Amino acid sequence: IAAAMTGLAQSIFYTPLYDPLFVLQDTVYVFDHCENALLKYNNNQQLLDSIPINYNHPTRWRDWKHLLLADKKKNKIYALYEHNGICNIQRIDLKTGRICGSYELTYPYATNIKVLNDEVYYTYRPLESLQEMFVYKELISEKSPLASTVK
């Protein structure tokens, strides 16, 4: 509130917090990026577990796009990374809080990325072309994470 009242929210130095909440099966997952923790709650709002996370601090800090994608059919959460236009989604293990697999999208500069039933959907248009945007679908086949991806 104070940031909005003083005009800080319109400043170039202001970055909003990103602490998403997902409900998968009967568990509520809160990704607290300020405290670097994954909090798990049950239906009665009782804290079940708190797990440390580090995927939000990659070696190349600008690569993480501050976006988590939920696959509610398969109960998986993915973090979105982009380097030189190439989008990469990395699955977060909900038991350990670590990256446990990654998948690179075929086309660069993909937008509107969504995940459902182990498939990734996104829109793509070739760079600097007048072609219409099309929706693409790819089956996620995960690779084991590279040691240099997240430390």
Structure, briefly:
The chain is mainly beta and 151 residues long. It is built from one helix and eleven strands. A four-stranded antiparallel sheet has the order 1-2-3-4, with no helix packed on it. A four-stranded antiparallel sheet has the order 5-6-7-8, with no helix packed on it.
Can you characterise this structure?
It is a single chain. The chain is mainly beta. It has one helix and eleven strands; from the N terminus they run H-E-E-E-E-E-E-E-E-E-E-E. It has one helix at residues 2-6, and strands at 21-24, 27-32, 37-41, 47-52, 64-71, 76-83, 86-92, 99-104, 111-116, 119-124, 134-139. It has a four-stranded antiparallel beta sheet, with no helix packed on it. Strands 5-6-7-8 form a four-stranded antiparallel beta sheet, with no helix packed on it. It has a three-stranded antiparallel beta sheet with strand order 9-10-11, with no helix packed on it. Strand 9 (111-116) and strand 10 (119-124) form a beta hairpin. It starts with a helix and ends in a 12-residue tail after the last strand.
